[in-house]
Design a protein that fits this description.
alpha/beta, TIM Barrel, 2 domains, 9-stranded parallel sheet, 46% helix, globular
Length: 558
Amino acid sequence: MSQSTAEAPANRAQRVAEAYRETVERYETGSGYAVKEVYGPDDVAGLSYADDLGDPGTYPYTRGIYPSMYRGRLWSRRQLCGFGSPRLTNERIHYLIDTGESAVNVAFDIPTNSGVDADHALARGDVGLQGVPVSTIEDMEEVLHGIPLDRVSVNLSTVGVTMLMAYYLVAARRRGFDIGDLRGTILNDTLGDPFCGYKRSFVPPDLGLKLSIDCVEYCIHNVPKWNPLSVDGYNIRENGITAPQEIAFTFALAKEYLDEGLRRGLDIDDLAPRITFTASAEMDFFEEICKLRAARRLWARIIHDDYGGRDAKALMYKFHVHTAGSSLTRQQPLVNAIRVTVEAMAGVLGGTQSLHTCSYDENSGLPTEESVELAVRTQEVLAFESRIGNVADPLAGSYYVESLTDTMEDEIRKLLAAIADQGGMMMAQETGWADRLIDAEALRIHKEIEAGQRTVVGVNRGVSAADEEREMEVQEVPEAEVRAHVERLRRFKEGRDKKALETALTSLREQAAGRATNLFPAAMEAIEAGATLGELNGYVRQGFGYSYDDLGANEAPF
């Protein structure tokens, strides 16, 4: 007998009566900012339409970076994908395209994101588990098989492994594409790698900064339609920080890249347009919208006022939104589909250029075909049924929205000043200041959930005893597929021209040691000679004076 059936009628009547007059006990944003009962003209008394808002497509871009926004082009539906092997990942990519996604988004597994090959001694158990394993040029070619790379935008979702971009370029060139026609993005946010679950990044900051800007510089001159750096706020936010902290951290990281690019001699109007952002969308609907509006305005002002940027494209805050995986619960997983819808709407009303909607089962494992299809359909319903994109920035002028947008900008500015006082983001990371801020905020949120002060349906409200017995289908990674992939890597290594490979890798190491040369041409030559990802990263590390294998298990082959 269920709990509701066993409940005494009098108790049930009392409970229903109380629910009828129920209110929310705390009135504040998800980040903890107090919210008034009602907003009016006094809350936006200092707001200037011309200076602080402007029409969509005009400085300071608060209302959107394009005049017609989604009337000109809808956001791209870009679902993250990768598991098992290059073959399985390619099959899932084509399934997603057939299902309705409009751009490709490739996720890599932990060994690949750690810069090592699938046969590394410490990779066992992680190969193909949370993304696709890519160790060789053949792997990359198989992932991309059948995709028209000159017509489809591809995102390489790797923060610390810049050299995956070199593999992508070689694979595209082998298939006959002009790399100048390629469209897409690589995260390439090496300085942000420690915030993404890899507390001990295999890429030291000096090497990471060098590689990130090498990628940007190479793409400016050779791959002009590509976004070679997307500062990753999503993974930082997943640690448990606030909305303003997410933007402040990403802007502080972006300034490190901008400063290094300018030291290299790049022009701000060439450099700034090539830097994009990956943002989170969490459950506070209005706060997330206002966060994105504030970010757009503040980024334009930073590039214009602090860096002297004048080209309109340099002033535009371009971003991808990933709905919050951290908001998903194991309990009552279908409720996650509702959360994802709310977050996706916030991302769209915030003006995103592309969107990943989480699948409802991601808290339990890799998404199944059924759950990922629903995620795509969620975007299609928003795009084609809800008419949410009919009007650019439809919430503009709301006293609450404009006031909260101002609050977000003010808080982001305060945090940027605090980071500057630390000596910039690299120093804030090195001293542990940034981690302490993240840990304190994450602890606050978890304590609020445990105390019932922050409601999570299915966790501390609407709890069902049946949750403990509910079984769910999960997407499994076939062990035989992983073994076959590792065996394929072994055969690949055996079949190479060892002399040509040694020559190419030695040249790459020497150029890395010189510090002045862009490493992409040498890296692409080494890839053509058969270098694996682990070898490529190892020789670059050696050139910078670090050990070949950060994990201490492998020696250099030559």
